[in-house]
Amino acid sequence: MSVSSHRKKSSSRTVKTSSSEELTTITKQAKRQYLAVDDESHVVGYVVPVFRSSHLVAQDLMEAQEETKEEGIGYVVMKNLFSKEEDFKMQKVEKKSRRVVIRESAERLVVGKKVHENQQFTKLMNEDSLAHPPEFIVKPKGQTVWEGKTVTLHCTVAGWPKPRIAWYKNNVPIDAKARPEKYTAESNYNMHSLEIKNCDFSDTAEYHAAALNIKGGSSSYAHVVIKRFQAEEKVAAKPHGYSEEFGVTFKTAIIDKFGVSFGVEGQTLSIGSTVVIYPTVKRFTPEVLWYRNNTLLKPSKWVSMHWSGLKATLTLSHLNKEDEGLYTLRINTTSGFETHSAFVFVRDADVDEEGAPVAPLDVKCHDANKDYVVVTWKQPAVEGSSPIVGYFIDRCEVGQTHWAQCNESPVKYARFPVTGLVEGRTYIFRVRAINKFGVSHPSRVSDSVIAMDPFDRARLKAGPSAPWTGMIKFTEEEPAVGVVPGEPTDLAVIEATKSYVVLSWKPPVQRGHEGVMYYIEKCITGSDNWQRVNSGMPSKSPRFAVFDLAEGSSYNFRVRCCNSAGVGEPSAPTAATTVGDHLDLPSAPGVVVPVRNTASSMVVSWAKSKDVKHLVGYYIEVSVEGSNVWVPCNNKPVTSTRFVCHGLNTGDKVVFRAKAVNASGYSTSSPASEPLLVKASVAVCGPPSGVHLVERKRDYMVIGWNAPAKNGGADIRGYYLDYRTVKGDVTGQWHELNTQAVTDTKYKVENLKENVFYQFQVRAFNLAGISVGSLPSDRLECKEWTVAVPGPPCGIHVLEVRKDGLVLLWDPPVFNGRSAINGYYVDIKEASGDEQSWVCVHDRSIQKMYKRVTGLKAGTAYNLRVSARNCAGVGVPSAGIGPVVAETRPGTHEIIVDVDDDGIISLIFEHADMAEGSSFVWSKNYLEIAESSRLTLETSEGRSRLIFNDPSVEDLAIYSVKVTNSDASASYTLTEEGLKRLLDISFDHKFPVIPFKAEMAIELQEKGRVRFWAQVGKFTENCNIEYVFNDNIVEQGAKYTMSFDKSTGIIEMFMDSLEVTDEGTFTFNLVDGKAKGSTSLVLIGEEFAVLQKKSEFERAEWVRRQGPHFVEYLGFEVTPECNVHLKCKIGNIKPETQIRWFKDKFEVEEGDEEAAKISSEDGVLTFDIAKCVFKKDKEEKLKPAAEEPTKTPKISKKDAGVYEVDLKDERGKDHSAFDLTGAGYEAVMNEVFRVIANSSTQLSITSTEHGIIMYSFIVYHTEELRVGWQHKDAKISHSDRVQCGVTGEQLWLKINEPTEKDKGKYAMDIFDGGSGVKRVFDLSGQAWEDAFEEFKRLKAAAIAERNRARVIGGLPDVVTIQEGKSLNLTGNVWGDPTPEVTWLKNDRELVSDEHYTLKFEASKFASITIAAVSTADSGKYALQVKNKYGTEAMEFTVSVYFPEEEKK
After folding, report:
1. What is the CA radius of gyration of the chain?
2. Is there a contact between 1057 and 1008 (Cβ–Cβ < 8 Å)?
3. Which of 1202, 1201, 1206 is nearest to 1110 (CA)?
4. Phi then psi for 1334, rounded to 5 degrees?
């Protein structure tokens, strides 16, 4: 009974549960993750899943489960119904015989078999019965690849309903949609794949695919290992592992990262980043690698790399479009690596002709042979103002500069076979595009290529096949000389366009030892008329391009081989080939779908072109909506269907389109995308920070945190919290706290266990998704808070971060302690400091819940915290906020104080980069301003204005503003002094005064006319002027003339003359709208009288100038040559005007001596006082003379007098005079002295036999000129030894027999009518030594000259004497000491004997006597004298004749 009763209770309990619960196939675990339930486990809605990577996957799974549930309900109901019917069946009990029993048993077996078969068939036909859990038919396989490669994991999954697939990396879900540049996940027909692009070490992990449907789930795992790019490198076990070689673990950080860069063709571009490697180890150098589009770059003439030990730099010289791409900097250390990537865009250079296309790119050479190569290139992004009609290909031999064009007519196809190359030579190629407007710049040259046989090239690359063995083997072969080559084989058309056809074949087997060449023949299909294509020059390569074919015609081709033995048989002809382009243009890509990325970039994607062959890539173009001006986003085609377009202008509404390109050309452009505004996209917000304890009790704690520093451009919608328990050093698993997001930055965690330690972390979410978790809080113990001091303040955040300060704000603590809070303390420390570095910012506690912190170091990071205080003491500080870097970010704006033209005072703040959903929030004393009658707020786009309705002392405060979803914030302190200044400006704006650039002034003009004028500084076209004299308005008329030039703002009023009645006050009154202004000038008393006299004088002068008059009155001029001229300038002269000169009332008549001194030129009359007399060579050294030559003075007192000039004709007369007496004469002479003094040269010295002379040249000397000499600042007196004087135009000072006392500074003072001109010479040092030595030398030379031996006279030049007579000659001799006397004959010395008698008497007379001369005595004689000062000889000739000869 008890057992039955228990079973019944159990059954009833089960029935109750079945009736109360709703039928569902969802597991409890799934329900907890995706459904929100009430206390009775009823589903009430769907909530945002926490810690899930994709909400969409979960939503699709839920829809599939609900759909399957609906399909299975009918089956379950029918099954239950059949079960109930079986309960009501009645069983009959009959006694049966054995035979019947056996028969019935056999029948039951047959029926059972049929029922089983029927059930199996029904089961197969029932959809609900087909449902089964997922099963991996093909599992993903592990792979090991090199770094930089792409890995694809494949799997095939069966299951019903169709399972959903999710990929995981180390059990972390992979969101391929969030990182399309890294992952691509595809699912087609139960075949699933995950593509991992650009693999690096961080991709080494365990990957698994998880399949899930309502029947269950299944997973399959695969390991992916990524090796270093270079095989010789050691692979670290971890990205940052321990380095055994150096004994440290290197940590690498790339800072100052290079961003997206833009360059122009032909320019030089450098990119680089600063690399910090910690710790610093001597002799360790990291490996710095640069990649472009995942291809390792190597130094070349286009690329150079530099590593300074701190910064890695890549320089691209002479940019080309080939340089465009994604550049990656990789820093390898023995502990791992770090990378950074950014895109470099290269814009086209300006074309030479407007409308011409830009240069092609990526020129390459293929299939090079002996005389043949195929050149390919890529079409440019911009065709110019008209489509490209074709391309020219140029070639150049390496080492030369001459470029030869390969094709006569442009080719449309981006591939061209170049023939006619010389075997063995190296070539480079370039391509130019052409349209109807002109030819583009040439492309970057291709890599060099050698024209040679491919087998030879391969043999050169491979190198020697085996080492030298030292053995040479000889074999006998059949002679092959004279063998005609056989037929080529495998002839085929490998390329056919409308411009050319390319043939390819294999050389013949039978060709002899010598090389073979080829003749190509063609014929039109259907005919047998074969024509040789290259009869002039056979081809050396088994490739040939046939040109000049008729488009649309069909041709057959064949090839013959030839050598020196002859021409072989033709090959088998090719099939019919129709000339035309066989590669169609690509179809247009799909519509471009743009997605916002940053403030200057967008991500665009499109559907690839369908049925396209040999696709080169895509070009993307952008245009501002409505402009119809398309600009390329990329100048190098991209092969993917996704691209990031940079360089856009924030705020523009743009559209995109794409076009595909292959060798045939461009496709049509895709339809334009939907217009989209360029602005920053919404991103997932950053994590919260500063998780801290706010309040605690025995069973609950209040947790607080700071909002994320970056909200991702959208409002923070809420927060999710996790918790875990901590026991010693062991931490538990994280658990969810709240399934409903909380919007505050505080949360009360209930149902906690007392005296248990917990840790908490917080995640924020916005429109884009859920952030990563914050840093875990400290270990917090759940127990009663019994302290008397207050808890930590909460809600700490910073605003107005600048390079030298910031503003810290906070909220009061939740727990105040045992008394009310009466102040706060703010602590600060540098982020790098320890806990002992905290310093309080202020000495006394502050009551306000904000504090401006100043005196920060620019670029330094700080942490801040706040502590509350009550009567019991200071509470625990809040969790520190930071690090906050003290810097003024680019684009930071401050609040501008504005007073408009109506005098309205307002505060203006501008923020250009307003994100979607952002708004301006104004605060007064850092409390948000609610509706106020004293303030009005106006906001339009990126500009907000706070208007003071009635400014007064009540408005004195700190006004701050911040922009939500951004870091922009600023403040302005309105002080009493500032308010007073603003009110003054407001009054000036309400009641404005017209400013004047120049107040009223007066000016005398010609004819004594008076001009009153002023200049207005600021006015409008509506400005009106009143002219007032002595409070009476004057009008335009005969006496007054007024004008106002509005282009310059000059106001003028003219009066022809000033009369006695015009004494008084003149005023200009201006009215310009509500602005007024006036300026006045008072003319009374003596000032008016002086001005009136000047006016009358100017009028008289004007009358005088109507006839002949003096423009410049008679005056004097002294020329540089000291000529004195009396000059005057005359005007308004006619030919009949009389001009008369007078001196001392006597007219200078024509023919007088003074008349020759009068001249007239260009209206200037000149009277020359005297003629110019001076020497030409001033540098000639003159010696003082006893008497000076007579000369005509240039001016003297006889020229004194009164000089006058009269002008007269029928129009009038004028007179001018100059008094050249007294003061006038003195003034002229002073000017003469000035010219003379300034013309003096610097003092020079010269030495003579008597002493030293100092001298200076002047242009002219007159007796009236005063010259003084000084030695050592003392006046020199004239003496026999020291003398001064003048010789011509030379002023000199002579020092006879100088001594050491004469050394020193000498000065010459020349009177110039004023202070005088001084010339100084320092006769000391080397100057004295040189002069004194020269004096001694000259003195010695003079003495020697005076005392040297010489023959004074007495001897004839020729003596003629008759034979037989005696000859006596006597010569006078001088010398001191007495000279030695020698007689010479024919240069031989004579000795006194019977024939020659030689005498020297009285030391003065030397004689020679020749007794009974004969013809032998004829000859050349000389008397030679000699002493210590010199030697001299006087020669004479003696001629002896016979008397008979004389008679004859």
Report:
1. 59
2. yes
3. 1206
4. -65, -40
Residue 69, token pair as written in the block: 């549930």
Phi, psi of 948 (to 5 degrees): -90, 115
CA 285 to chain CA centroid, Å, is 30
Express each pLDDT in 1405-1420 by its tens digit.
888 898 888 888 888 9
pLDDT tens string 575-602: 888 887 766 788 899 999 998 888 889 9
726-743 pLDDT, tens per residue? 998 888 889 999 888 998
User: Which residue in the block uniquely carries the two structure tokens 């923020």?
Assistant: 911
Whole-number Å distance between alpha carbons of 1037 and 123: 122
Condensed to tens digits (0 to 9), the pLDDT of residues 216-233 reads: 889 999 999 888 644 444
How many Cβ atoms sit within 10 Å of the Cβ of residue 806? Answer: 22
**3-class DSSP state for residue 1337?**
helix
Comparing CA positions, the residue from 812, 805, 960, 809 lying closest to residue 884 is 805
pTM: 0.47
* Angle at CA of residue 396, ends 395 and 397, nearest 5°: 135
At residue 1005's C-alpha, the angle toward residues 1004 and 1009, to 5°, is 85
Alpha-carbon distance 505 to 516, whole Å? Answer: 13
809, 881 contact by CB (below 8 A): no
DSSP-based helix, strand, coil % in the chain, nearest 5: 15, 40, 45
pLDDT of residue 128: 55
> pLDDT of 620-637, one tens digit each?
999 999 888 999 999 999
Instruction: For 206-275, give the secondary structure using H, E and C.
Output: EEEEEEEECCEEEEEEEEEEEECCCCCCCCCCCCCCCECCCCECCEEEEECCCCCEEEECCCCEEEEEEE
Query: Residue 1047: how many CA atoms within 13 Å on its side-chain side?
Result: 0
Beta pairing, strands 1050-1055 & 1010-1016: antiparallel
**Based on the number of CB atoms within 10 Å of its own CB, is 505 exposed (0-12), middle (13-18) or buried (19 or more)?**
buried
- Is the pLDDT at 1189 greater than 80? The verdict is no
Q: What are the pLDDT digits (tens) for 14-36?
A: 333 333 333 333 333 333 333 34
Give CA separation, 174 vs 166, 180, 201, 841, in Å: 8, 11, 17, 47
Which pLDDT score, from 0 to 100, does residue 290 have?
Answer: 93
For the CA atoms of 1089, 1095, 1101, 1105, the dihedral, rounded to the nearest 10 degrees, stands at: -170
Q: To the nearest whole percent, how much of the chain has pLDDT over 70?
A: 87
Burial bucket for residue 944 (CB in 10 Å: 0-12, 13-18, 19+): buried
**Per-residue pLDDT at 477 exceeds 70:** no
pLDDT higher than threshold 80 for residue 183: yes
Q: How does DSSP classify residue 319?
A: -
Map residue 1385 onto helix, strand or coil. Answer: strand
Amino acid at 1102: W
Mean pLDDT of 964-970: 86
Token readout for 22 is 């709703």
Q: Environment class of residue 884 by beta-carbon count within 10 Å: exposed (0-12), middle (13-18) or buried (19+)?
A: buried
- The secondary structure of 343-361 as a DSSP string is EEEEEPPPPSSTTPPPP-E
Q: 1021, 998, 1002, 1000: which is closest to 1011 by C-alpha?
A: 1002
The kind and range of the H/E element at 4 are helix 2-20
Collapsed DSSP state (helix, strand, coil) of residue 1098 = helix
Please give the structure tokens belonging to residue 945. 């204005």
Report CA-CA distances (Å) from 1031 to 153, 765, 943, 1027, 1309. 101, 78, 50, 9, 67
Q: What is the pLDDT of residue 958?
A: 93
Amino acid letter for position 22: E
Structure token digits, residue 281: 């180890």
Q: What is the mean pLDDT of residues 1089-1095?
A: 86
